[in-house]
From TrEMBL:
GO terms for molecular function: metal ion binding; N-acetylglucosamine-6-phosphate deacetylase activity. PANTHER family: N-ACETYLGLUCOSAMINE-6-PHOSPHATE DEACETYLASE. This is N-acetylglucosamine-6-phosphate deacetylase. It comes from Sus scrofa. Pathway: Amino-sugar metabolism; N-acetylneuraminate degradation.
């Protein structure tokens, strides 16, 4: 059996002497589309024009409620007649990707980027798995109707996905390192370590991530942060969306694995003290802080004004303090349930934000969750999921819910974000490893601060977290996948380009089998990782 692959196949019809299979059409519409596609567009006669008009009319009558529904074009899965097995070709195994070229008439595709059509797949789009084809050109997801009816083009190349799931690439907004690399170590070549992790996490379906620095002394931030710029993904590895600074402005009581000696509070100059600690915020995307620290709301407002996401975590804040932080601009909770006050019926603490009715109009909260099987009990995972199962925050137009609004329901994006919180020991075996200024001991599936029973991050990759979350919560496959893709993209305001396979979005996607194991990873429509499967 051959591994899933999307290697380009030879374009155009097979050479002479090949034993040909008949071209198959799924229905009359598909037959008509192909007949039109093979015509010289400059000389289409009245019958073809009438047929094209009929297709356009049919398209106009279709319901617009289903994004990405391409009607007749879903059936345009024509493959050049190819040699039968035994006539100079090798039959593809179960689940393998099979490619075949589709020739363009008149050389119209010569001066343009090639169009790829991924067939025989289920696409995660609009919260549902749709049996539709994915069309890609120039690194973006393409609308096939515009391609066919406006540009009069069809695919330059088709790739059979063997019935697999195509989901948006995973986005990990909290990862401290992995494969022996510690992002919080002030080495002379931090970039090479980031590049190694970026390359290795492709095998786990991650196409974008936020390298995370734990609490460190100022000189570490000053040296490391300039070496981790925002970077697009590609064959070299997953894209870097910006750095996540987890600390040092956190609670001493809930510091977890963060070294107490380097914790800081906001001094009289507040935001200027933040700048002095970090040195620069140019490459920063997320800052985790404890909202109960004095002058924290002033800092939150200053950070959000710069477009930086503020997350609440490692905190002993009560619910009222947490609500004030959200009112000041905070939009995220760092690893929900971990390193915060436990839920109490008289004061639920930060956890209470999941059902708070005191958030102002347009404000909502996302919450990170480590679903590695160690950090969070399955019952807690179910509570977190069921609080906002659709990734939406209910509300009324124009007024806060606490004001008793009566306008139409206008849900805003919110909800659960799967994170790994992976430490440098990810991908390594048992033993002692580093995490910032601390030593971590790995034993089996757990990582502890050496000599203690304090959990110190996770050693589970993102795809494993997705599978565990699915099993533990009983949610749908769609919900589990969106928690690792669409929700983190929405958190960072990137949902038009990342975390989705809507038309115009970046063609970052992961190919998954039915058990949600990664078979291949694509960035901007380019194959960047492929599973190795033994040939039979």
């Amino acid at each position: 059996m051959e591994p899933p692959s999307c290697r380009p196949a030879a374009r155009g019809p097979p050479g002479p002497g090949a034993e040909l299979c008949p071209i198959k059409f799924s229905d009359v519409t598909g037959r008509l589309c192909v007949w039109l596609a093979r015509r010289d567009w400059g000389g289409v006669g009245p019958p073809a024009k009438r047929a094209a008009a009929s297709l356009r009319s049919r398209r106009a009558r279709r319901s617009r409620g289903r994004a990405g529904h391409v009607g007749a074009l879903r059936q345009l899965r024509v493959t050049w007649a190819r040699p039968r097995c035994g006539a100079g070709t090798v039959g593809a195994g179960s689940g393998a990707f099979r490619s075949a070229g589709l020739r363009m008439r008149g050389g119209q595709g010569a001066a343009r980027a090639p169009v790829l059509q991924f067939t025989n797949c289920r696409i995660l789009r609009g919260g549902a798995l749709l049996r539709e084809d994915l069309w890609v050109r120039g690194g973006r997801v393409l609308d096939p109707e515009k391609l066919f009816f406006e540009e009069r083009r069809v695919a330059d190349e088709q790739r059979d996905c063997g019935g697999c799931i195509l989901a948006p690439g995973f986005i990990d907004v909290q990862i401290n390192g992995g494969f022996g690399v510690d992002f919080s170590q002030a080495t002379e070549d931090v970039g090479s370590g980031v590049a190694l992790v970026a390359r290795r996490i492709l095998s786990h379906g991650v196409t974008s991530f936020c390298p995370t620095l734990v609490t460190s002394p100022p000189e570490v931030y000053h040296k490391v942060l300039p070496q981790i710029p925002v970077k697009s993904g590609g064959p070299h590895g997953a894209g870097v969306l910006g750095v996540h600074l987890e600390g040092p402005f956190i609670s001493r009581e809930k510091r977890g694995a963060h070294p107490e000696a380097h914790l800081r509070s906001f001094e009289a100059n507040a935001f200027q003290d933040v700048l002095a600690t970090y040195g620069s915020l140019d490459n920063v995307r997320i800052v985790t802080l404890a909202p109960e620290l004095g002058r924290s709301h002033e800092v939150i407002r200053a950070l959000t004004a710069l477009g930086i996401c503020v997350s609440l975590g490692h905190s002993v804040a009560d619910l009222g303090t947490a609500e004030e932080a959200v009112q000041s601009g905070a939009t995220f909770i760092t690893h929900l349930f971990n390193a915060m006050l436990p839920f109490h019926h008289r004061d639920p603490g930060i956890v209470g934000l999941l059902t708070s009715d005191q958030l102002p109009p347009g404000r909502h909260i996302f919450y990170g969750l480590i679903a590695d099987g160690m950090h969070t009990n399955p019952a807690a995972l179910r509570i977190a999921h069921r609080a906002h199962p659709k990734g939406e925050w209910p509300g009324r137009a124009g007024v806060g819910r606490s004001a008793g609004g009566t306008g139409p329901e206008v849900p805003s994006p919110a909800g659960l974000v799967l994170v790994t919180d992976a430490v440098p020991a990810l991908g390594l075996g048992n033993g002692r490893h580093t995490l910032g200024q601390q030593e971590v001991e790995v034993n089996g599936l757990t990582a502890y601060v050496a000599g203690t029973k304090t959990l110190s991050g996770s050693i589970a990759p993102m795809d494993a977290c997705v599978r565990h979350f699915l099993r533990a919560t009983g949610c749908g496959v769609e919900s589990a996948l969106e928690a690792a893709s669409l929700h983190p993209a929405r958190l960072l305001g990137l949902e038009k380009h990342k975390g989705t396979l809507d038309f115009g979005a970046d063609a970052d996607f992961v190919v998954l089998d039915d058990s949600l194991h990664v078979r291949a990873t694509y960035i901007l429509g380019e194959l960047v990782w492929q599973a190795e499967v033994a040939r039979q």
